[in-house]
Design brief:
Elements lengths: L2 H23 L16 H4 L2 H13 L1 H23 L5 H28 L7 H23 L6 H18 L1 H11 L15
Helix pairs in contact: 1-3, 1-4, 3-4, 3-5, 3-8, 4-5, 5-6, 6-7
Length: 198
């Protein structure tokens, strides 16, 4: 199996793990330092999904990056419904659907923004701007769909989650920089069995 296909499969696997773990962890507030109404544990894992999408976009182009996102969406929603959704609890069901809708919307926007900015001479511009905008959209969509109209302090939770996501998105620039050196050899190739840019 080629290095390119190995990378594609690895990105699919990481995306699935990130989405499943984030959907589960978002149900648990951080009960330390008075953060229970401000932050959930999902904020620490979810930003990795934007790293995965941006690496896929850089390596293969936006068409393949969308395939990674669709896979994450299908696996994430399916396994979340099977593993961590309590169907007798409407909030748990709303979390599953809110997560799917927010994820798909934010990731596709991230892909399009990244694709427009990827040729910028400064390597960090595309991942930083696309991940920041994607994180904002994802956070507010998710919390509104999942918790609006409930006793959960969704607005303060969303602000807390977003703050951590933006910080981690900034930190994700370090592994992104390392990874784009590895995937640089793929960017000029035109032949790839899964298709390339669209």
């Amino acid at each position: 199996m080629s290095k390119k296909k190995n990378l594609f499969i690895l990105l699919l696997a990481i995306m699935g793990i990130v989405i499943i773990s984030s959907n589960y962890l978002v149900q648990f507030p951080v009960n330390s330092f008075g953060l229970e109404n401000i932050l959930t544990y999902g904020a620490f894992t979810y930003p990795i999904s934007f790293l995965v999408t941006d690496v896929a976009n850089r390596a293969f182009g936006k068409f393949i990056a969308k395939k990674v996102v669709y896979f994450g969406f299908l696996i994430g929603v399916s396994l979340t419904l099977l593993v961590s959704t309590n169907f007798s609890d409407i909030i748990s069901i709303r979390i599953a659907f809110g997560s799917g809708i927010a994820f798909l919307t934010a990731q596709l926007i991230d892909i399009n923004i990244f694709d427009r900015l990827r040729r910028n001479k400064s390597w960090y511009i595309a991942p930083l701007i696309s991940s920041t905008i994607g994180s904002v959209i994802d956070t507010f969509l998710f919390f509104m769909i999942s918790f609006y109209g409930t006793q959960t302090p969704w607005f303060t939770l969303s602000l807390g989650d977003l703050s951590v996501k933006l910080l981690i998105a900034l930190l994700m620039l370090i592994p992104f920089r390392v990874l784009i050196i590895y995937v640089k050899e793929f960017t000029n190739e035109k032949k790839f069995g899964l298709a390339n840019n669209s």
